[in-house]
Structures are given as structure tokens and as C-alpha cells.
Amino acid sequence: MPITMPEGTTTAVAITIDFDAHSPWMGGFGLTSPSVLSRGEFGAEVGVPRLLSLFERLDIPTTWCTPGHDLVTFPDRVESVMAAGHEIAAHGAYHEDLRSLDEERERELMVLQLEQHLAITGLKPRGYRSPAWDFSAATMGILEEFGFEWDSSLMGREFEPYHPRPVTLAYESANTFGAPSPVLELPVSWYLDDWPAVEYIPGVSPQMGSHRVMLQRWKDIFEYARTRVDNALYTLTVHPQTIGRAHHIAGFEELLTEMRGHDDVWFATLSEIYDAYTDD
């Protein structure tokens, strides 16, 4: 199904920022030492301004997927993102592991994060990105229940939006699919994410990855999408505390500048892409 892009453009590029700050350390890894929390603070206090400056220079609209905890912990930074014209989307309450929650608790945390969005941004987010890009069996139904228009957490396509289907497992016969969700999936990829490539975590990621290898991978995937896929959606994900480091953001600027040089590329928020998509 096509994305109706501005005249002359054939590839949609969505630059998405997972503005996690403290929450991935607390909710994702269960780490709360001053050292790891300072890394989240760096993301908010240094990474965010660096990214906003870069996006302003290159005139690129972006979507910031932000947990409720980071909305209320760094409201001034969230305000600066909104003042620059960027979109804020939901990204969990405190970067919780949805797979560990029962349906009642997951729903409670959805209510909490939406209240925090309203309190800080004044808006209900149109889209959702799950913490750690994973769902429980209940997540899609909860997204439908709370009226989300799009999700950007799953990986059933590479460059095309789609409507996810629930899967019923049968180990000794074929799995079966349910009806497609009305929620539109704007797919992600671990290959198009800075965190697993270069974020050093002692005991978890024991080696520091090469940012040059990461940037070349992103470029190669972009060129494939632009030159070989009709009506492609290229969704790139970065984190302020990761991409905001000097050597990372300098290379990121090189890549975005090169992308910006193609007349057939449309930079858009995820909600703009949702609005431009048709199921017909």
C-alpha cells in the first residue's frame, strides 16, 4: 500500500529519537548507580540540544518517542523539543519490560504514561513505540483500546507500513494468523538503531562498537531503500545519550547531510507518514 509523498519524492525518511534519559537504566536494565544515571542526564542536558541544533540546521522534522518518566523528569527539554516543532510519541511509562507484566498492570502503566503526556505536552500522543521494541500478548489490544493510530516497534516488514496480525502458536502444526490490527505499523530494525551498535554497557556489551561501521550500515540500507524499493519508508532510531556523543553526532551529521542532498527524499514525522498512507 502506498505512501502519498510530496511531488518528486519517492522515499520517506523518518528520523526517530528514543528520548530515554534515566528510564532505560532504571526500567530496562535495573541499574540505578550514579554513573549510569549520569549517562541519561548527559542525553537530556547535552544530547538533546545537540540534536535539536542539527535538525534545525538541516530542516529535518523528527519524532521523539519518550517514556512518561523522562517527560516528568526533564520537562524543560521536552518543551524545547516541542518548541522546535518536533513530534512527541509514547514510549512506555519507565521503559518497563512489557513481557514481564500482566495485562492489568500493563493497562495501568498505559493510563499513567498518557496522563503524564497530557500533563507535560498537553496532548495525547498519536503513536506508540514499545520499550525494548517488544510486546506482550496484550499490547496490541491495549493500543487499539486507547485509540493509537500507529505503532513503531515491530519488524514484520523492512520498508513498508503494514497492519500486524496476532499469531496463534502451534508447535506441531502451522501457526495461524488473526485479523489485522487497525493500528498501522511503521516498522523498525535493530540494524537501524544506534544503541545496540555502539552503546557500551559493562557486562552487557563488553566491546565498544565502531561508529563508522554503524554509519556505513545505515548508508547502505538507505541506498538500497532509495534505489531498489518503490515508495520506501526508511526509519532510523537514535538515542540522545548515544548519538549525542561528539564522534557519533559528527558522523550522523555527515549522513543526514548526504541524505538531504537527494531531491527524491521526503523527511517526515511518523504521524505525517501515517497521514500520507492509504490502505487502498
Could you walk me through the main structural features you see in this protein, from its secondary elements to its overall organization?
With 280 residues, the chain is an alpha/beta fold. β6 and β7 form a beta hairpin. It is built from eleven helices and ten strands. The protein has a single domain, classed as TIM Barrel.
Question: Nutshell version of this structure?
Answer:
It comes from Compostimonas suwonensis. The chain has 280 residues and is α/β, with parallel strands linked by helices.
Number of strands: 10
**Beta content:** 5-15%
CATH topological fold name:
TIM Barrel
Structural class: alpha/beta
H/E series: EHHEHHEHEHEEEEHHEHHEH
Proportion of helical residues:
40-55%
CATH architecture: Alpha-Beta Barrel
Described by strand count, sense and barrel closure, the largest sheet is:
5 strands, parallel
General shape: globular
Structurally, the number of domains stands at: 1
Discrete helix count: 11
Unreliably modeled segments: none
Mean pLDDT: 96
Radius of gyration: 18 Å
CATH class reads Alpha Beta
Mind telling me the CATH superfamily name?
Glycoside hydrolase/deacetylase
